[in-house]
Amino acid sequence: MARSAEQGNRTVHVPKEPLAESPLPIHTLGARELRTAARRISKVDEELRDLVRDMLRSMYTARGIGLAAPQVGVQKQLLVIDLDLEEAATPPLVLINPEITAASASLNTYEEGCLSIPKVYLEVVRPSTVEVSFRDDQGRPRRIKADGLLARCIQHEMDHLNGVLFVDRVTDELSLNEELRQHGFERHHVESIR
Ligand code: K1U
Ligand code: ZN
Fold first, then answer.
1. Strand ranges (DSSP E) for the chain?
2. Active-site residue 86, yes or no?
3. pLDDT digits 0-9 by tens, 7-30
């Protein structure tokens, strides 16, 4: 639907309270959708912003801090992040066609989780800081330097855009097998594309 000049292209904004049901079902380990590489987005329009809103509502409902489009079965290079779930005034980050332009040589270890692998938490080693270029929800080019949990989350979500899951990066095979088993997954569900 066309928007009037008064309405303009509004930045996406949705309440952070969880809904009774996720607007978009989130695929879980074993689903083919999680192993399919996402395509670049050529047009940032109201239809895409509607998808962003539904992804944000789904992320807030699942109480996650990030969500990538392939997790909801959409093979587009789009991800959302919000590290401040309790603060309504903090806007989420929307990254369209993100590219890592620099990554630190220094690495750190963090126990990651994933909405697509519920309850499984395992240590993953990644670069401590990254620089990322992307388009925002208005299609404007952006560039950020990220460290801490934001750097971690960006790398985790960008992996989703390439069909890579954090369990592919776990080096402790014993812990991986045990943690998967304890939460109802089997090793064959991982089926790495790497
Ligand atoms: O991609 C996803 O499935 C979201 C994932 C993001 C993520 C978490 C931890 C490290 C890297 C990436 C999650 O949000 S899982 C839930 C979670 O770990 C968490 C939720 C609320 C506060 C803090 C962590
Ligand atoms: Zn994930």
1. 66-68, 78-81, 93-103, 107-112, 122-127, 130-135, 141-146
2. no
3. 445 678 899 999 999 999 999 999
